[in-house]
Amino acid sequence: MKKLTGTASGLKGTIQIPGDKSISHRSVMFGSMAKGKTTVENFLPGDDCLSTISCFSKLGVKIEQNGSNVTVYGNGLKGLRESSEILDVGNSGTTARLMMGILSGLPIHSVLIGDESIAKRPMKRVTVPLRDMGARIQGNQDGNFTPISIQGGGLRGLDYVSPVASAQVKSAILLAGLQAEGVTSVSEPFKSRDHTERMLRAFGVEVKEEEGGKVSLVGGQKLVSDLHIVVPGDISSAAFFLVAGAIVPGSRITLERVGLNPTRTGILEVLKNMGASLSYSNVIEDGPEPYADITVESSDLKGVEIGGDIIPRLIDEVPIIALMATQAEGTTVIKDAEELKVKETNRIDTVVNELKKLGADIEATEDGMIIKGKIRLHGCTLDSYGDHRIGMMGAVASLIAEGETVLQNDKAINVSYPSFFEHMESLRRG
Ligand code: S3P
């Protein structure tokens, strides 16, 4: 439990945003599948990524982690050995789904479990296509929920048309496809984040992208590594302070080395459309993932409509966008975002619940929410419900709420941003 109070003087200063969660997971996974040594700088030492390290260590890979520096000594796919232990993914959907793809290709038996939240998250979105490729997967409710058991090997390529825009689904199939006979391809209704494609290419794999966004690769390609991966700051973590800077009067904050992969930058477009003041410096575009420093200043905001193909590019930012909308003049509509229901919590419900407690004018819809502003929020007792992004939304809300806010289950924030409260404190001190 954490007691939080508002700030009258604004947020000031510079922070370095911790490493991107999606890229950190993939650096360990692909480093483990590759032959050779992979060194990773600015790895995110959050609980989710530590679960990935623990799972691959159980599969026999030597991995050294010291804070945000990681070294993976990969021995190729053949170096991944059957584990006598259960693989625990903790709270991490990315670990669960991407590993299901990798394990489906290996001639070994594996069992995956996770925490209470993972036990409610649908796995059929990967179980079904992986079974079509030849993997034998079992789990609760016909393979939809953990515990999941996988007997892998003997896969054939698949041309998969995914009903959801999900990088976890796309990645699981491509990673299985790398170990399958023939070509594997994935099309999605809208383009999801492409970190897998970018990093596989860095490991020497040929990944093709056709017009219309269909991604394909030929099975049997080997990952080779002598790579040094520099993980950019996570734009999904930066989002909390970008919004804090925009809504706390008198603020001016610089966030260093924020990842600017175009499949992730929907939040920046929304901030701009709502009237936020953003400027960019030290833009680096020559590596596999672009990044830059971003400065945000507080400003007057207005409501906007958010829906369609931008949704996958900001899906993890919806909680903090909803809070921002309470401070914008007019109505904000978020639609086409049903995927929120299957995140760490049902984020339509948890966002609406917690913002209502703070006094917001917000209502849930079938595929999103409608928020009316501008409303003066008041302190209250909030719950993260074990969802890191709901916890951080509540903590940022406390900065503008009148009186004291109590945040229950604040430890969930360690999943993606262990230094969150330290950073918030340093910006309050200015
Ligand atoms: C992730 C993809 C997204 C995102 C999650 C991380 C990834 O999920 O919400 O936090 O690393 O591939 P979906 O792919 O299911 O949309």
What key attributes describe this structure?
alpha/beta, five-stranded mixed β-sheet, four-stranded mixed β-sheet, binds shikimate-3-phosphate, 24 strands, 32% helix, 2 domains, globular, single chain, UDP-n-acetylglucosamine1-carboxyvinyl-transferase, Chain, 430 residues
Descriptive overview:
With 430 residues, the protein is α/β, with parallel strands linked by helices. The protein folds into two domains: 2-19 and 232-429, Enolpyruvate transferase domain (UDP-n-acetylglucosamine1-carboxyvinyl-transferase, Chain); 21-230, Alpha-beta prism (UDP-n-acetylglucosamine1-carboxyvinyl-transferase, Chain). Helix content is 32%, strand content 27%. It contains 13 helices and 24 strands. Strands 3, 4, 5, 14 and 15 form a five-stranded mixed beta sheet that branches. It has a four-stranded mixed beta sheet with strand order 2-16-18-17. The protein has a four-stranded mixed beta sheet with strand order 6-7-9-8. β21 and β22 form a beta hairpin. α1 (21-33) packs parallel to α7 and α10 (318-326) runs parallel beside α11 (347-357). 53% of the residues are buried. The structure holds shikimate-3-phosphate. Shikimate-3-phosphate is lined by residues 22, 94, 166-168, 171, 192-193, 315-316, 339. Residues 9-424 form the Enolpyruvate transferase domain. Belongs to the EPSP synthase family. It catalyses: 3-phosphoshikimate + phosphoenolpyruvate = 5-O-(1-carboxyvinyl)-3-phosphoshikimate + phosphate. It is found in: Cytoplasm. InterPro entries: Enolpyruvate_Tfrase_dom, Enolpyruvate_Tfrase_sf, EPSP_synthase, EPSP_synthase_CS, RNA3'P_cycl/enolpyr_Trfase_a/b.
